[in-house]
Protein 1
Amino acid sequence: MTEILTNPSLDPKMRAGIGPEKRCSACRKMVPAAEFTIARGKPDGLSAQCRECQAASRRRRVGKIHLRNQRWYARNRRAIKQKVAAYKVAHPEQYREYARRANERRRGALNKKLDEYSASHPKARKARGMVNARVRHGTMVVPDACEICGRPRQEWRLVGHHEDYDKPLAVRWLCHRCHKQLHRAIKEG
């Protein structure tokens, strides 16, 4: 019971900032006790740095670690790739399982984004579904070349561009490059 009265980190009045202040060892400012994290090993039960200084210190440290890791990888890229290739040969089942799990994680994230987009754009989803079904059943034929640049379908996969989702079967068949350029022009206005 006496610990609650003597330890400011556990005293609710002091944690709420009503009680005394403490000097931060980093910024040297007097800061309310509530702005310090709990450090049970310290005599006053609070850390030496305020939360703001701790966060700044953590960001600097993480940035340095990231830069150090990037430099190390750049120096050792060839050796790492050789080790990975050797592991693939020596442990094909384990590597296949690792690759399968990694692909599931990526697919899960991608599916989540697609589901969110579909939920917020129901007309677009319905129009794409109708076009894909018609192409699959052979009632709609994909042309042999892009409508804008004439690039053959064998070079680039053609996609159906909807000018208006209220007319789901009115599509222009474009290569990926022309489709991106068209959307960029539409976005720019």
Protein 2
Amino acid sequence: MRGIRFQIVSRPGKDILYGVDALVRDGIADPKRLTIGGYSYGGYITNWLITQTTRFNAALSGAAAPEHVADWGLTDIPLASVYSFGGFPWQVPSLYQQEAAIFQVDKVRTPTHIVVPADDITVPPTENYIFERALIALNIPTKLIVLPDESHSIGNNPWHEKIKIREELKWLHKNSNISVSPSNSTMNSAISNKATQIYTFIFVMFALSSFFKK
């Protein structure tokens, strides 16, 4: 992760957009039917990217922070922020702000669905509430779902994963040009493949790619 140190969302975010451009240019992706989603770190990047572009018809964000000072102060892994930004918030305040979606949230135009594990101590629910409140203030279509008695991994109640997938599919159907059906077979397949972690994996791989290129 050294390749994205100090630019934990902006640098991998650019790589992702370059990748999207390539997929569109090669005729693989339809520019009129693009959506974006991520959970945990993937959610951080999702929050950031919808402040950088309006090309996505819908966004799915989960367990993600739109800023990094409260994130450092409330998370159970505060040293991750200290390492990523090269210091504490009072030592490098500009870096904490530059990489925070909340300070560019007025550029968001993408309908955004947010999922929050209520007992998450890795990315506290308050971070998600901040982002939801900002989107509502800007009249951006948004929906927030709080999953009770769940930690960051959403592993306590299997129904909560099913609800997460079901509601995300509904959001894509409502706010994008993608035809999806929240059927039981679709949700069961997604859950069995641990879809709640796939978004994070995809975005981490994009992030790591910027490191291995060097």
